[in-house]
Design goal:
elongated; about 250 residues; alpha+beta; 3 domains; three-stranded antiparallel beta sheet
């Protein structure tokens, strides 16, 4: 059955972590596209972003993100803590929490009456402190403006990618050095300047050098292969994990 586009569909763009190849993006597009209420799904592996349009009367961001996480990927949650003025009792706490949870994309909301602070985790990058302030203001509570200086979702995503790139660069550098040593120790009988070396005598050295390359630098492939196995699919991680382990 072909889905028809609705005029009141809502479009959101969110980061998706855990993709390792184009087939991951295709899998997300296929599964999310089959959900009731979704109109268009476009996942770009290179930028690790998913653009989704949906009918709010039939589904919600939480349902969409749950489907993505059930595939073994993750949609990063944003967390914000801000003060709430005007609460006087436990009933106020309950009212504030229910109001925040009614916002699309909010995963959890916890309010502490003693400290008069609310802690909210949310998926949807379209919402933020301004939305929480506006929503609570409609039911008589106030969120002070001085808490508006929060790190943006883009800044958090850039910071995460920078840390990930730094770790990968470090792993690559260490693996490159160790791989060169493995090559020299393992091919000594084929190199003129190392013709006296016997690779058979270096087997334990080769084992020690290869272990961190295989299981430390390559851990992400094992992790991805295990995720695919648990969810019933195979991808490039499976190929790399099986191939390098066999070798």
């Amino acid at each position: 059955m072909q889905k028809t586009e609705l005029a009141d569909a809502i479009a959101i763009t969110v980061p998706v972590n855990g993709m390792t190849c184009a087939s991951c993006a295709s899998r997300i597009e296929k599964i999310v596209g089959e959900l009731e209420g979704t109109q268009k799904v476009s996942v770009i592996f290179g930028s690790e972003m998913a653009s989704i349009s949906y009918d709010p009367a039939l589904t919600s961001p939480l349902k969409i993100f749950a489907a993505i996480e059930n595939l073994g990927f993750s949609v990063p949650r944003q967390k914000i803590v801000f003060p709430v003025e005007g609460m006087t009792c436990a009933a106020c706490v309950s009212r504030v929490e229910k109001n925040l949870l009614r916002l699309d994309g909010v995963a959890t909301a916890h309010v502490n009456l003693a400290s008069e602070r609310a802690s909210v985790e949310y998926f949807d990058p379209r919402i933020g402190l301004g939305d929480f302030r506006s929503s609570l203001g409609k039911i008589g509570f106030n969120v002070p403006a001085e808490e508006s200086g929060q790190i943006s979702q883009r800044d958090r995503e850039d910071e995460r990618r920078q840390k990930e790139s730094s770790l990968l660069a470090w792993k690559f550098g260490v693996s490159a050095v160790l791989s060169l040593l493995i090559f020299l120790a393992g091919m000594g009988d084929m190199l003129p300047f190392l013709s006296h070396a016997d690779p058979a005598q270096n087997r334990w050295l080769l084992f020690l050098l290869a272990t961190p390359v295989q299981f430390w630098a390559g851990w992400q492939f094992y992790k991805g292969a295990w995720t695919g196995f648990r969810h019933g699919y195979a991808d490039m991680n499976t190929l790399i994990a099986v191939g390098t382990s066999a070798a």
